[in-house]
């Protein structure tokens, strides 16, 4: 007897409804292969040292440096999540080159025996690298800035790279120039004021 009840009744359907509504995890959508956007102009792949240097100096530099040194504290000690996070960064900088990602991961502080552990005909490391490549939507492209500039000025640039419009530059004195700071925004403002 529990709380005044003396019998049990069948309520599997009600329990199933509660389970589905509150406890059952949503089905994960089937992941579809995604091809990272590759540069339209060919470029020489970065060396391992260049990748490490650029990743360290990037906007994800702090995260990269922490992972590179083997620190998993940002992932609550979940080494597998940290492994994938590092591989995601390496995928971006390496152009999704699996051998480069693997080679660099092996140099990191996260490298451990599990990386080479056999799992279903492959290794944990290969599966992690492939997941990072599959999830990578964009790769490093040193030509991107040049491509963007060409797009921005496409209406003014002919096929032979000559300018179609006459641009009149405004006269500036040294005193006029001193009011601008020495940073990217001020340089852009200065350039814009030259062509008014």
Automatic annotation (TrEMBL):
Record-annotated NrS-1 polymerase-like HBD domain positions? 80-142
Name the record gives this protein: Primase
InterPro entries attached to this UniProt entry: NrSPol-like_HBD
